[in-house]
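pinging the channel bc i need a second pair of eyes. not urgent but kinda urgent?? the chain im working w is below, pasted from the shared doc
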Amino acid sequence: MARVEGELFKIALASLEAEPIAWRYRYVKKGVMDSQGELWVGDWKYVPKKEDCNDRPNYEIQALFTAPPVPVTSEELVKAVHFYEQLKRENPPASGNQINGLTMPVKRPAD
């Protein structure tokens, strides 16, 4: 479990330290609407460095990042494993006779 938590911590830390892989910018006409009633904006232009973006007024600039890696182990799976281990500790294995005793009433036809 500690190893899984350590890996999740590394992923979270890496996402905080991530650097943009590219940038995009577009012109925005403030106060001007298009035919659908949306704010009028130009097409995005994609560039490798922020310095390549148009930084004049009315330009929107966004940094682009890679998607963070998906954790291999979800929190729900970790909880399920802990629950299973707890059940195994608290409940000794059933013998064949115990299992037969539980299934026989089910196998009998209904009267």
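so The first helix runs from residue 2 to 16. and DSSP finds three helices and four strands in the chain. — does that match what u expected or am i reading it wrong
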